[in-house]
């Protein structure tokens, strides 16, 4: 009997990678006006970005209901899981962690479910999920899988370059005057996930400088265990991936898409990078 690993669709793990390690994913919901769509089922990432570019309406996201997690937890137990570890998007950015925790609590310890807050988003969260899934695949106990996830989380860093301030402005995260000034000056903010929330890390004067800045951060981070690069339908993403050639993580580079959950807030053209430092680095 093994430990099952569960996450939510904000982790943005490529499907083949998640499926290969047996990770089960509970989808969040995306709303365009009165229309609600299930992430990954009713709407692919490609369809989401096409719709965003064609629409003036800013989409919204909604956490899964506790029942969606409970149903999956029960199903996994019936399939023989000895325990379940569920790694969620940051509890400071979504009610998803609360829903998973409520579902776990409703089961009375049967099956045993431990919920881990990744304190991260997109492939930053995904790297924590992978650490948990690989520990489970190696036969670790529930405690061992949780420890692997928490260890990766403690060594994780996630940064991104935003192409446009429009989504931040329309979502109420930056004032209209600041957005207009940023556009006029071609200021490209670099964001970072810190303590589970998204903060501005720096401001670069051009897109090229912001991407070079990100690549330099990766290369100066020291020995890396894992590295992931992700794109929100960015035309210059391949060039950015080439910039990462000097970084040599212990495990293969993961390249993926920023999906609807995170992309709703960052907007199209965003490029992000996530890395976990080697456990043996100083």
Could you walk me through the main structural features you see in this protein, from its secondary elements to its overall organization?
The protein has 282 residues and is α/β, with parallel strands linked by helices. It folds into 2 domains: 3-28 and 63-154, Rossmann fold (3-Layer(aba) Sandwich); 156-277, Hypothetical Protein Tm841, Chain: A,domain 3, CATH 3.30.1180.10. 39% of the residues lie in helices and 25% in strands. It has 11 helices and 13 strands. It has helices at 15-20, 45-54, 66-78, 96-105, 122-137, 142-154, 166-170, 176-184, 207-219, 237-243, 260-266; strands spanning 3-8, 24-26, 29-32, 35-38, 60-62, 83-88, 113-117, 156-161, 188-194, 197-204, 224-231, 254-257, 271-277. The strands form 3 sheets. The chain has a 6-stranded mixed sheet with strand order 10-9-8-13-11-12, sandwiched between helices. A 4-stranded parallel sheet has the order 2-1-6-7, sandwiched between helices. A 3-stranded antiparallel sheet has the order 4-3-5, covered by helices on one side. A hairpin with a 2-residue loop joins strand 3 and strand 4 (35-38). Helix 3 packs across helix 4 (96-105) and helix 5 (122-137) packs antiparallel against helix 6 (142-154). It is globular and about 55 Å long. It starts with a strand and ends in a 5-residue tail after the last strand.
């Amino acid at each position: 009997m093994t430990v099952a690993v569960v996450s939510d669709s904000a982790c943005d793990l490529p499907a083949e990678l998640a499926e290969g390690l047996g990770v089960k994913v509970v989808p969040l919901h995306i709303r365009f006006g009165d229309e609600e769509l299930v992430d990954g089922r009713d709407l692919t990432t490609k369809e989401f970005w096409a719709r965003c570019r064609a629409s003036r309406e800013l989409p919204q996201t909604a956490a899964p209901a506790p029942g969606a997690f409970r149903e999956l937890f029960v199903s996994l137990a019936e399939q023989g899981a000895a325990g379940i570890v569920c790694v969620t998007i940051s509890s400071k950015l979504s009610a998803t962690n609360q829903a998973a925790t409520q579902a776990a609590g409703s089961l009375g310890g049967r099956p045993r479910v431990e919920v881990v807050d990744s304190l991260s988003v997109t492939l930053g969260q995904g790297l924590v999920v992978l650490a948990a899934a690989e520990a489970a695949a190696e036969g670790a106990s529930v405690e061992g899988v949780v420890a692997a996830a928490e260890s990766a989380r403690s060594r994780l860093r996630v940064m991104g370059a935003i192409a446009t301030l429009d989504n931040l402005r329309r979502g109420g995260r930056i004032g209209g005057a600041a957005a207009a000034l940023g556009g006029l000056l071609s200021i490209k903010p670099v964001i970072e996930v810190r303590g589970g929330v998204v903060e501005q890390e720096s401001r670069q004067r051009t897109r090229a400088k912001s991407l070079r800045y990100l690549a330099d951060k990766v290369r100066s981070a020291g020995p890396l265990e894992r590295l992931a690069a992700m794109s929100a339908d960015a035309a210059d993403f391949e060039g950015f991936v080439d910039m990462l050639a000097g970084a040599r993580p212990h495990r293969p580079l993961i390249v993926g898409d920023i999906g609807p959950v995170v992309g709703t807030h960052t907007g199209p053209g965003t490029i992000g990078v996530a890395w976990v430092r080697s456990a043996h680095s100083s």
